[in-house]
TrEMBL record:
Keywords, comma-separated and alphabetical: Aminotransferase, Transferase
Coiled coil: none
Residue ranges annotated for the BioF2-like acetyltransferase domain, each copy included: 629-769
Taxonomy, superkingdom: Bacteria
Species, as recorded: Seonamhaeicola maritimus
Keyword Transferase among UniProt keywords: yes
Name this polypeptide is given: Aminotransferase class I/II-fold pyridoxal phosphate-dependent enzyme
GO MF annotations, alphabetized: pyridoxal phosphate binding; transaminase activity
Signal peptide: none
Transmembrane segments: none
């Protein structure tokens, strides 16, 4: 099995956040000697604050402040004991008042994250299963993953997709005791709601279904006694529902609250709830402030405050209706999201609004898909109507300028969010370059292509002609690709950019950890296209290398890049691709900032391995350049076995040989879950045998010369590159003859014999290739998806 260096998701997040930080729109520090909630100090300026989650403004209520100050004076800054031993004297009053609010048993937790970590492993038994909404808060997902250690099945549905949820309930109902669906009451980015009434009906239909609702963004500003959106929809809390609320955010204090009507479960969680038992309890000031807030929630005043906020929300909604600003989800929550599409546009728009005197949040990956970046605006009681009106006016003025600054338009934004396009704007920049897109290499000049793109790999003109013939008109849909050649010229018909793209079906777990692929492949035994997506990719799954030619010195390079991005988007929409992949770039590639600003996230691919040969170099001269340690390895594990083997270069194969070669390739493919792809069509091997540029390096034992135990499938690129594209091996003989290492050596030997300048050894097994003199380079891909569902599901399965 190939050793693959898998991408670290946290590295990807870090890159995106670092980019936003450098643009001055994230990881900021508030300034000032005091804080009113209406304004916030940033970079020596006071900005109107449209980014708070304290929607009712209770964190500035003098009653909460006085209670907190008094508690510190009486009890100190903390009460350093676990609640399992003894709670501080103020806890009892808080628990009584919050219980009165909900009319159900409650448990106070330090915060919602620790609360989930304490509750979920207790509430979910080993006989249960979990289904996550893919947009449920990270803290819920993280706590649920802990149960993988107990072999509790964890699955995921697309956001608010109840048909998908019902299908998964049916599939689990005969195997699991209870099925937990975990979701947010209100989602923090778009402000959209969980369909709680429909979920309640689903619970009646499937008694096994239990709901776990995180309603921290629905708290206080709605519902009886401010108990939140979820309870306002459910009316009552049945025993199959666990509800999380918050004592921070809109509640104005600190901490979180679990509400549980199931007395048995309540007792089990309260008795021993992991972090609930061992973590420090809330500080006296927080408990006192929360108690003061609960008191307000238990009086008619809470409804006056809610109505006050509701007026501001309605006012903002009405103002937005008279604009062309792309509001992603219109509702009555205090959370609004204006889509910008590309991150670079989001940075620009936020910066412009800050200079205009308004602070808003940037909504960015991983909270939203990268190409669904936008500005998250929250309305609170701190905001005066005049300030809300001024914010809308500023957005109307600056939004088109942010689009223009970042070379995009409203059509692209609306398409990214699947919104109706209200207006069409002419792209003046693209008029400066000429874009040509063809669907076959036969329509591209051979010399032009080979001089600019086809210098390496199996993607010179002849190689692409071969691939087109092989990956068309096949029985299985994964074996049929469409090819698209994009060449962008200046007015003098000089190429500025040239590349090719394919559209095909990929396995979503292609670069996932082996553990995830094993789980997914079990499902694919009965559902072969489970977790697969139509992908638009630079290059193809058959090719590796630098697929993108760019004239770096051309004065219209930037305009050509913008034209390329729009061409890619056009192809994506035309073929309904669910993912776009720009691949095979180096870590220090100059295009990194551009691609990231265009809504792509960078992920690490398997390392690329190449050998560069001297003119007229012999195999003996090549060996002398290896380190002494690697020469010993060569003598002991390769040269010593060479006399025992029959090594042959075949230009064409008979039917029996092709059958053996195909079976050997299949063995490697099946054992290589580290790079999990679909197999190739059967006609590939016959096409190779009949094509003058392909040859097979085969290995057999001298004892059984007709039985091939290893094969390297090699392509002769006319631009002086030898390409061992794929390998096949009989794993029964792998250790006996060191088959893979022998094949690598024979490939290098053959490349030298044919006087090639380069040998492209491809991806994977870089450790083995390095020992034979290969230069190993880290490679990266830039990925853009329509949503984060697949990525998050793979995270759950790994």
């Amino acid at each position: 099995m190939a050793k693959i260096k898998h991408n670290n998701f946290l590295d990807t997040v870090n890159e995106v956040f670092t980019d936003a930080k450098q643009e001055g729109v994230m990881h900021l520090y508030a300034q000032g000697d005091d804080f009113s909630g209406r304004t916030i100090g940033i970079n020596n300026r006071k900005l109107f604050h449209f980014g708070t989650t304290g929607y009712l403004g209770l964190e500035q209520d003098p009653r909460l402040k006085a209670a907190a100050i008094n508690a510190i004076s009486k009890y100190g800054t903390q009460f350093p004991l676990s609640k399992s031993y003894i709670s501080n004297p103020l806890y009892k009053a808080l628990e009584e008042k919050v219980t009165e609010m909900y009319q159900n048993p409650i448990i106070i937790t330090k915060n919602s994250t620790l609360g989930h970590m304490g509750v979920i492993p207790n509430a979910v038994s080993d006989q249960d299963a979990i289904i996550l909404d893919h947009q449920v808060h990270w803290s819920v997902q993280s706590a649920a993953k802990v149960l993988k250690n107990r072999s509790v099945p964890i699955d995921m549905i697309r956001h608010n997709d109840l048909n998908m949820l019902e299908d998964k309930i049916r599939s689990l109902s005969d195997k699991q005791q209870r099925i937990w669906y975990m979701a947010d009451g209100i989602y923090s980015m778009y402000g959209d709601f969980a369909p709680l009434k429909d979920l309640k009906s689903l619970c009646l239909k499937y008694p096994q279904l239990h709901l776990y609702i995180d309603d921290v963004h629905g708290m206080s500003w709605i519902g009886k006694n401010g108990t939140g959106y979820a309870l306002s929809q459910l009316d009552e809390l049945s025993e199959n529902i666990l509800l999380f609320g918050t004592l921070s955010k809109t509640f104005g204090a600190s901490g979180a609250v679990l509400v549980c009507s199931n007395k048995k479960m309540y007792h089990e969680i309260k008795t021993f709830g992991g972090p609930l038992t061992f973590s420090a309890q809330l500080e006296p000031a927080s408990v006192a402030a929360a108690t003061a807030s609960a008191q307000i929630h238990l009086t008619p005043e809470i409804y006056e405050i809610q109505n006050d906020l509701r007026e501001r929300i309605e006012y903002f909604n009405n103002l937005l209706e008279d604009t062309d600003l792309p509001l992603i989800d219109k509702n009555n929550s205090p959370v609004f999201f204006i889509g910008t599409g590309m991150p670079r546009t989001g940075y620009n728009f936020v910066s412009r609004l800050m200079k205009e005197g308004f602070y808003v949040n940037l909504g960015i990956f991983p909270a939203v898909p990268v190409k669904n970046t936008g500005v998250r605006i929250t309305i609170s009681r701190h905001n005066e109507k005049s300030e809300i009106e001024d914010l809308v006016a500023a957005m109307v003025y600056h939004y088109p300028k942010a689009l223009e600054d970042t070379h995009t338009n409203i059509q692209r934004v609306c398409k990214a969010f699947k919104l109706e396009v209200k207006s069409v704007v002419e792209d003046k920049e693209q008029a400066e370059v000429i874009v040509k897109i063809e669907d076959s290499i036969l329509k591209i000049d051979k010399t032009l292509w080979n001089n600019h793109v086809g210098k390496h790999g199996v993607y010179d003109w002849e190689g692409l002609k071969f691939l087109e013939q092989t990956f068309r008109n096949n029985e299985l849909k994964e074996h049929n690709w469409t090819f698209h050649y994009v060449i962008i010229y200046d007015s003098g018909h000089k190429p500025i950019i040239a590349t090719f793209l394919t559209v095909g079906l990929w396995k979503d777990d292609m670069l996932a950890k082996v553990s995830a692929s094993k789980t997914i492949e079990e499902e694919r035994k009965t559902n072969p296209y489970y977790l697969t997506s139509k992908v638009l990719s630079i290059g193809s799954l058959f090719t590796e290398g630098n697929h993108l030619f760019i004239d770096e010195e051309h004065p219209l390079k930037q305009q050509a890049l913008h034209a390329l991005m729009q061409s890619v988007e056009s192809l994506e929409q035309r073929f309904k691709a669910e993912m776009v992949v720009l691949r095979d770039f180096s870590e220090k590639d100059s295009l990194h900032p551009y691609f990231q600003g265009q809504g792509f996230v960078r992920v690490q691919m398997p390392n690329s391995c190449k050998i560069h040969l001297e003119v007229n170099e012999t195999i003996e001269e090549f060996i002398t350049k290896l380190s002494s340690r690697n020469r010993r390895h060569l003598r002991k594990e390769i040269l010593e076995y060479e006399p025992l083997l029959k090594i042959e270069v075949m230009k064409a194969c008979n039917k029996e040989q092709l059958k053996q070669i195909q079976e050997l390739y299949a063995q490697v493919h099946q054992n290589n879950l580290g790079l999990n792809t679909f197999s190739f069509p059967e006609k590939l091997f016959l096409n190779m045998s009949e094509h003058p540029n392909w040859e097979f390096i085969t290995i057999s034992s001298q004892d059984k010369p007709t039985q091939i135990i290893g094969v390297m499938l090699c392509y002769n690129n006319e631009n002086h590159t030898y390409v061992p594209a794929f390998v096949g091996m009989d794993y029964q003989y792998l250790r006996e003859f060191y088959t893979y290492r022998q094949l690598l050596y024979q490939t290098i030997k053959r490349g030298i014999e044919l006087k090639f300048k380069h040998i492209d050894l491809g991806m994977t097994a870089s450790f083995e290739k390095r020992k034979l003199g290969a230069l190993v380079e880290e490679k990266y891909a830039y990925i853009q998806t329509s949503d984060n569902y697949t990525m998050e599901l793979l995270g759950v399965l790994e």
